[in-house]
Amino acid sequence: MTLPTVFLTRALPSEVLAKLQPYAQAEIWPEETPPPYETLCQKAAQVDAIITMLCDRIDAPLIQSCKNLKVISQMAVGYDNIDLQAAAQHHIAVGNTPGVLTETTADLAWGLLMAAARRIVEADNEVRNGIWRPWGPDVLTGQDIYGATLGIIGFGRIGQAMARRARGFDMRILYYDIQRNPTAEQTLGVLFTPLEDLLKQSDFISIHAYLNQQTYRMIGRPQFECMKPTAVLINTARGAMVDPDALAWALQEGRIAAAGIDVFDPEPMPANSPLLAMRNLVITPHIASASKQTRLRMAFMTIENVIAGLQGLPLPYPVPLPT
Ligand code: DGY
Q: Is-above-0.90 flag for pTM?
């Protein structure tokens, strides 16, 4: 009996691949960089399942050209790179890896918050470049975190994990989401606040929303103009929610004090981006879920989705498709 086929756009750990082996014949893209779109289209058109990363464009033309594809299994919680409408039309199941990366992602968001507020990367760079300024009243002064106000945009799993961290710092916590969460308001002591008020009142603003038409470029010049000049913006969600030109303007002009970003639009960040020269910006290259333990759990979930999808079973971690 011939096994169904799977194309993986990136290599996964051997113990994860071993789990797939009895169920499918795998072809693995050997590079660290994603396969070019044309290659991805060619490969996807030949297989029964694809394992994708968030930087693989799985759009309607690609999906339409796949005759045998039964399942798209994404190794990420976000799936804005996948055209769900097209997947639904072609009866292709889509899976993701929710839950397991919540705390890991919130850890990195918190790390960026602390690093940007207290200028940790800037200070480290100075020391490594031979500059150890004598202790002085205003040397490398940043923003207090303890007791400050945190505004969380998007109050799903990761937003709530951020709130739990903020409680340990005795912060006042505001949140904005399209859906109010009265239970979390009680248990976490957070306050639902309309977006504009949240932007005005917060010392720290952290984005944890999904990227969609409503959240695309939700932070631009008008929103930066609402923020305090001492505010620190953190984005570990999706780069496209923040207008990159407006961010550069806000940091350059001192409209906000600092920012910490793990995501950017586009990724990779262009080498000539003016943001790279800004000392009040801490940048990491989309690594919020990148702990060894979490990435292994994500990889196993990805494989479990593929195995179920190939057998025509409901995916254990399905993405709801539009009807
Ligand atoms: C996701 O899984 O969507 C995250 O962006 C990964 O870091």
A: yes
Catalytic (active-site) positions: 238, 267, 286
Average pLDDT over residues 148-170: 98
Domains, the chain, ordered by start: 5-100+292-310 (3.40.50.720), 102-283 (3.40.50.720)
Ligand 1, CB cutoff 6 Å, lining residues: 54, 76-78, 101, 286, 288-289
| 54 alpha carbon – ligand 1 mean position (Å) | 7
DSSP sequence for 130-190: T--PPP-TTTT-----TT-EEEEE--SHHHHHHHHHHHTTT-EEEEE-SS--HHHHHHH--
pLDDT value for 148: 99
- In ligand 1, the atom with minimum distance to the C-alpha of 97 is 2
5 C-alpha vs ligand 1 centroid, how far in Å? 26
At 1 the pLDDT is: 77
Q: pLDDT digits over 196-232, tens only?
A: 999 999 999 999 999 999 999 999 999 999 999 999 9
